[in-house]
Amino acid sequence: MKRSMILAGIAVTLMGCGGGSEEASSVESVAGSFKFSADTGVYYSPDYNGVYDAEYLGEEALPCEENRTQYYETENVYVFGNPDLPDSDFETAANWVESYFQDALDVMGITKEEFYAERTHARFFARNHFLEDLVDLKDDPSSSFGEFTLPTDILETRDTEDFNFNLYEWAVTLATYTDAQTVMDTVIEEANDFDEYSSLNIDDKIYVCLHEGVNDNYWGEGTYAGIVIAAPSVNPPSDASELITHELIHTIQLVFTMDATLVQPLPRWWLEGQATYLSGMGTVAKNKHDEYDPTLVIYSFDETYVDDAYGHYALAYQYLEEANGRETLVNFMSELKALVTNIYSDENPEDIEEYLATEDYQFTNLFNATMVDMDGNPLTVEQWRNNYHSYIEDWSN
Ligand SMILES: [Zn+2]
Prior knowledge:
Elements: H1 2-13, E1 33-36, H2 37-40, H3 62-66, E2 70-73, E3 77-80, H4 87-108, H5 112-118, H6 124-136, E4 144-145, E5 148-149, H7 152-155, H8 163-177, H9 180-190, H10 197-200, E6 206-211, E7 220-222, E8 226-230, H11 240-257, H12 268-278, H13 309-324, H14 326-338, H15 352-356, H16 361-370, H17 381-386, H18 388-396
Parallel strand pairs: 3-6, 6-8
Antiparallel strand pairs: 1-2, 2-3, 4-5, 7-8
Helix pairs in contact: 4-11, 6-8, 6-9, 11-12, 12-13, 13-14, 14-16
The chain binds zinc ion (ZN).
Zinc ion is lined by residues 17, 246, 250, 272, 275.
């Protein structure tokens, strides 16, 4: 469990994106109203005796954890934040998301219905709690968690070295795909620290949190439930259309790839490259490819700071998309979620340093089985890492 916890932390921090200080472009105005959480039971992050799920909802989401009285609601959006902010901040943020959510879905080639079908109604910390309890059956295999007991064929491997692997795969698959209602019912019934159904539930809305920080390297991020962005009156974005679309693409990425372990199996160059390229933020020129090695950047700590790192990720992503098609890449993400990243797999390096220096093994296996280069020849992660510059060189000639 330790490695998955480490990676869960990484998954959240690699979503941060820079902003700017110019005026926002004008957007469509939609109808909305302020509501009181006490009346509706809708919260950005529920509070169980001081326990929040905010760590999975955004690194700058503290204002939405602390201000739990009201929010602003439109057809597709909830906006949370400090009630002392002007009403126009909440309205503007909702208008942005209402205006660009469809754009983000369109560039990913999916419908709103497909997005919500892929996103769980059980908050991620409920699914994670469910997973931990299923894994705990290892210590007492004759016990049960709700209606769930260890299957006989897994019990039969108890004295073999396959036991942990088999049990973990079973638990992650169940925790990821069991019906949300069953997850919530089981968690409420079996775990006495959860007692409110409404707080375990996530609605079919984009959850927006307004933060009040002014940081050149962090304007917003995409989260599982929506986006965390700077309050417009505090730090207006350089280009709301591109930035909101970019962050919403991060939301879609998480929904399409993350299983109940909370590990994000896509490398950083893919996450930022896809969000940057598809939101129209542009790529670096092909003839500048040799200035950076995007495909070596798996986590944010692999990134060497250069101004146009995102443009290099975008160029790498553009190559892959033109060679394979956008639909293939989006299907790839969904297939990746279905493959359990099993911490007990032999393909997982035991050594943490080595583990962090390589892509997730399920990502590597699926990539090697799926991707082709611009000539239609099979492309492996190893080739993509080691020969990136010659692929781009051939492409630009
Ligand atoms: Zn980003």
